[in-house]
Amino acid sequence: MQKLVINGGKKLSGEVTIGGAKNSTVALIPAAILSDTPVVLDSVPQIRDVKNLRSILKDMNVTSEMNNDVLRIDPTKIQFAELPSGKVSSLRASYYFMGAMLGRFGKAVVGFPGGDDIGPRPIDQHIKGFEALGAHVENKHGQIIITTPEEGLKGAKIFLDMVSVGATINVILAAVKAKGTTVIENAAKEPEIIDLATFLNNMGAVIRGVGTETIRIEGVDTLRSNNAHTIIPDRIEAGTYLSLAAACGGGILVKNIISEHLDAFLAKLDEMGVNLEVGEDSIYVKPSPELKAVNIKTMPYPGFATDLQQPITPLLMQANGDAMIIDTIYPKRVKHIAQLTKMGANITSENDLIFVHGGAKLKGANVSADEIRAGACLMIAGLLAQGQTVINHAENILRGYDQVVWKLHCLGADVKLIGEDDLVES
What we know:
The protein is an alpha+beta fold. It has helices spanning about 20-30, 50-60, 85-90, 95-105, 125-130, 165-175, 190-200, 235-250, 265-270, 310-315, 335-340, 370-385, 395-400, 405-410; strands spanning about 5-10, 10-15, 40, 65, 70-75, 110, 135-140, 145, 155-160, 180-185, 205-210, 215-220, 230, 250-255, 275-280, 280-285, 295-300, 320-325, 345-350, 355, 365-370, 385-390, 415-420.
C-alpha cells in the first residue's frame, strides 16, 4: 500500500501540463493487437493502468517498450492466450481485450473485469453487441468465454439499450474486421471514442459517425500502422487540476487542454464565479475569492462527466451556500464522503443525492482513497486543509493521474509519496 502525505494550507501557483487521456489509452493499448505491424503511441500517461495493460500484452507474447511518454507495441508475434482473472480483475478497462481478441482471433477468454468499486457496471451491452455479430458468449467460473462460428463475425445492426462508453468501444474493436457493415445506434459520443476511431482509421479501418448517436463500420481484412498516434489530452485530469487551481491556487496555468471537451465542466466553474482565461490550448485560473454554490448533475458526454463530480467537490466546499450533486451515471459513487467528514467537511448523502454545505474549514486527517476519483478529491481536500493529511491506498490515484507527485511539486505543493513506486520501466 502506498501513502500520499500532504502538508496543506498553502497557496499553489505555476503551471501544469496535462498528459494523454487515460480513458483513451486503456482502449488504444488493447486495440493495438489488431494491427499487423508495430504500433507507436505518443503522449501516453505514466499511470499504473498502462503498466498493468502492458503486463497483459506480455502474456500474449506482445512486446512493449515505454520511453518517457512514447509506447511502442509489437503485436507481430502475438499468440492467443487466456487472460487470467488475477490481472484482469484488478483493472476494469481490461475488458477491451474481449473485443480486440475477437477482432484478432475470433475468440476470447477473459477473467471477469474488476476496477473501482463505484456501483454496478454490467457488461450485458457488450455481450449483446458480440452476440449480434455472431459470437457465442458464456460465463464459466468467473471467466467470459467468447467463440465465433467458422465463417467468423458478420456485421449487424446493434441498438445499445443504454449509452455505454465501454460497450461502444468493445463493439467497435470486434466489428472493425468483421465481414460487412456494422451499425451501432445509441452509441456513446465521448472524445475518447473519437480518438480510438482516429487511430483505427489511420491503420485502414472504415469507421464513420463517431461523436454522434450512430456509428457505421465497414469491416476490413487488415490493419497496418504507419505513423505514431498522439493521444488526446486527458479531460478528467484537466478538470481535476482546474478544480485544484480554483480551490487553492494563487494563479495556475493548465496547459495541453482541449477546452471543447470540458464545456459542461467549464460552464459550472463559470457559474461558480471562478476567474478563467481560456486560451487556444490552455486555461489560466486566477484567484477567485468569492465562489457561489451550484448544483451538478452528471450526464453522458457532452454533459458533466461523472469522473469530475468528486474532484469538484472540494471546490464546492469553498463556496458560499449549499450545493447538491446528482450522479446519474454511478449514483453509488459516494465513498469519498465519509473520508471528507474526517477532515471536517460538512457533506452528506441521502437517496443517491450528495449535499455539500460550503464554508467548512478542513483539517488534516488520515483518510483512504478507495478509487481513482475519490483519491483525487481527497488530494485536493488535503492541499486545502490545515495540517497534515495522509491518504492511504494512494496507488489508486496513480492508476489515473500522470506523474501526479512531480506535477504537484511543480506547483509548490508539499507532498510526498511513501511506498514502492515501480511505475516507470522500459
